[in-house]
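An instance noted here:
***
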Amino acid sequence: MLHTRTTPGGRRRALRERLATGRLLLMPGALNPLSARIIQDTGFEAAYLSGAVLAADLGLPDIGLTTSTEIAARAQQTTRVTDLPVLIDADTGFGEPMNAARTVQLMEDAGLAGLHLEDQVNPKRCGHLDGKTVVPREEMIRRVRAAADARRDPDFLLMARTDARAVEGLDAAIDRAKAYVDAGADAIFPEALADESEFETFRKAVPVPLLANMTEFGRGRLLDARTLDGLGYDIALYPVTLLRLAMGAVEDGLRTLAAEGTQESLLPCMQSRSRLYELLGYEEFTAFDSTVLDFSHPSDT
């Protein structure tokens, strides 16, 4: 009702146990706490918080302008309302290795199940854009080691993302991934692989859980869950899907409202009042105060 019924430790163990099954885990990205509730309500087993989405929500581009405390605060709002394990994008760790260490503890305190750190330089950019630059491998190794050493809950998942495929080539990205695992990473996020053969090659070379980023309008084609499962991937990530759906609907709705002077034609596209109240748990709050739901509202279903 007021908060999740599970503990951060329990959610972290649940994520690790789910990854240990070898079955592909579909992980949509939440755009706000309410959407995380919907992700849970529609049957998904985990949720994600994208750095690009969190920045866009503040009206900022995805170039490292957000701070670790801003991200942790938003994360805590989300983990408060869902029983799902939530993985978060922690960019480059927001600074030097010591910043990455602090970021891990902030995200642990925010109730997250894990995070990923990437090997880009600052200012970073979307992993599917040209002109990326990665830090030297040893610098990222220090970043990962600092994060691993700072972790207080051994079940907190530490994932390393490498953007080296587009900069140094596939072999270098694989070599980096292996080095990051040796430094303490539990899982790897190989960003912007070109095609199925590269996904397959990466899978054969790196023996830890792997994440496949199925972001829209990216460098590679969108692979379906059956294909990714067949390739042996552990997580299929849909980081910005909900934001793009929502913002597309918002723009269409505003144009319609401006053109027609009424929202009448948009009603079939809207979430109903009753469904919103169901998600918010209005009825459950009557356990505290019987006047919370002592009203009726017009049928909107």
